[in-house]
Amino acid sequence: MKANQNYKNIAQSYLFSTIAKKVNEFSQKNPDKKIIKLGIGDVTLPLCRAVVDALKSASDEMGVKETFHGYGPEQGYNFLKEEIQKYYQDNKVNLDIDEIFISDGAKSDIGNILDLFDKDNKVLVPDPVYPVYVDTNTMAGREIEFIDANAQNNFLPMPDNNIKADIIYLCSPNNPTGAVYNKEQLKQWVDFANKNNAIILFDAAYECFITDSNLPRSIFEIEGAKTCAIEFCSFSKMAGFTGTRCGWTVVPKTLEFDDMNLNKMWLRRQTTKFNGVPYIVQKGAQAVFSEEGKKQIKENLNYYKENAKMISEVLTKHNIWHIGGKHSPYIWLKCPNDMNSWDFFDYLLENIQIVGTPGAGFGKNGEKYFRLTSFGSKENTKEAVERLDKFLN
Amino acid sequence: MKANQNYKNIAQSYLFSTIAKKVNEFSQKNPDKKIIKLGIGDVTLPLCRAVVDALKSASDEMGVKETFHGYGPEQGYNFLKEEIQKYYQDNKVNLDIDEIFISDGAKSDIGNILDLFDKDNKVLVPDPVYPVYVDTNTMAGREIEFIDANAQNNFLPMPDNNIKADIIYLCSPNNPTGAVYNKEQLKQWVDFANKNNAIILFDAAYECFITDSNLPRSIFEIEGAKTCAIEFCSFSKMAGFTGTRCGWTVVPKTLEFDDMNLNKMWLRRQTTKFNGVPYIVQKGAQAVFSEEGKKQIKENLNYYKENAKMISEVLTKHNIWHIGGKHSPYIWLKCPNDMNSWDFFDYLLENIQIVGTPGAGFGKNGEKYFRLTSFGSKENTKEAVERLDKFLN
Q1: ipTM beyond cut 0.90
Q2: Which of A138, B93, B184, B291 is 20 to 30 A (C-alpha) from B154?
């Protein structure tokens, strides 16, 4: 048997392990100093009441013969797909129920969707970037090209005629930068893809943080997207499902390349290589859309947004260039005094015991930048902001 | 973008849709006749008490900040991996904790494991067969060869020197035939794989039905398997998790091909393209191994086994050749009077309203055979057996 040799080309990322090591060493030397972690990419608030109640009630159903659920539809139960359909309708996007596929999270589907594409497609990925786009394509042996996201383009790279790409990754609101495309910008990408027979893989995992109704929360708000885009979304950040695992993928029925229909192909892929999301988890996700659920998750999102606002305000006060934080849980800042991002990491840790994520860990354009997140507790975030304020004076 | 052209070569299976259509037509014409379905491949008993309690208590944990669980380890929590490790130890198989990967079911991992292999490997699949082995490799463009399972070899094909294969699928207890390899037979496969630098993908999803301690429940009971085999297992049939989604995959650390370590590759694959099984589901699965859990799932397994025994007994009484049913929920029988399997399907439906699965749907060697399952209710199975007894007289 010959193993997949492409695995030899996957870069090893030491970003988070290096951070953990540095934090560990510091706290062993300074056991009395309180470290505040603003590098967390995971939610910290618990599941809301409505979701917990739904999970428990579905668990009870599973314990009774008459209401027990065995194998479900691989693409998800209609009761959940209909709620997602309505969620898009409220945003003026009409989807057919068969265009929505329930997933166990955006990460799985972003990886698995590549099964539908030939190996010899050229991939375009913005830099800095969520590492999964690059690693999954490297595993499959695809050629990857990067497009620069930087201060000149506000970390929102745009297409131009020099770009040759078959598969284009866009993430908006962006991880790690928090930058958000407006409709005109996304329209340029959609037009580019349609013109060049390319497909856009649109990662909308952070759409729930968008409050400005002029900003697109779905690529399907853009005319023409249904012939060139697949969208990935998730309950992870929206409702704290990072450990509960549920999301969805939208594959339009009109998405065809050389007479091959991607909606039918994805259905075939999922029915063959996936067995659906647990019934109880889908019932929990359904509760996110109930009246109480909607109210409760909004409270949680507002909690994180308040944190983001506090961080953004102190940076503004001290004239530190930054984006994100408004329609995103991430704040992306330029390290002061032209510092390198790992130096700034050490500097913050040593002096005021705040831990963030060095931008260099997300790609070459991340160098001299730094990511803070709003997923900490309000108390800790407040304390961190006070430390920053004093220190930056 | 060029779509994956291999999808054009996937066979469309109309097996279960054709069955559903025939049953529908019959019941519309004969609304007063009670149809008994013995074709079901899904469990029908609810989750046991211990599991439901664990799911509910884990749901409560998720609703409280102090006990909330966000992203977990992609390869599963140690609390569950340790229980599985013990389950193997009780069976005299020693596994390192890092050799066990928690999955959302055997089907996903049986499909996804192919990411680790080069496209140009030759695949060997027994016929008749669970269609997933064939379809997943067809999607990836691999060449597939079949090995005949038939009455001559008791539906347990053995290796010989004419076979050229890099990836070998074995399923024992078998779906659809219920045939079980003994240790000597599996040893021949393990030796063959080691000698020919091949890998065995061992589907052990039905191991819990084995009661004879001389029959191997895991391929790792066989000396040499840790250098040539990956094993897939599931809580689906063991504990009724078909709609709750949990299983595990064992990838030995000693599994190396050309200096590439498959355990490390699988860890890398899973951390990149998977985000783990829901915390609550893993807590539910853990409860399967509690004292009450073990007792309760045994009761359920015995319930299905009793059904299988009834079916097997009536076939024996009427001299109908069959295998399975003893260490498997499936009974595989030779259609009487040399009938074709779809003719026998119609014959049973028309005359005594029993629905089974025509063997021809599982491959060419399934022709003239028929699958019955023990997943119905005891009452229905008993009634079906009475009808069969009368009819076969």
Answers
A1: yes
A2: B93
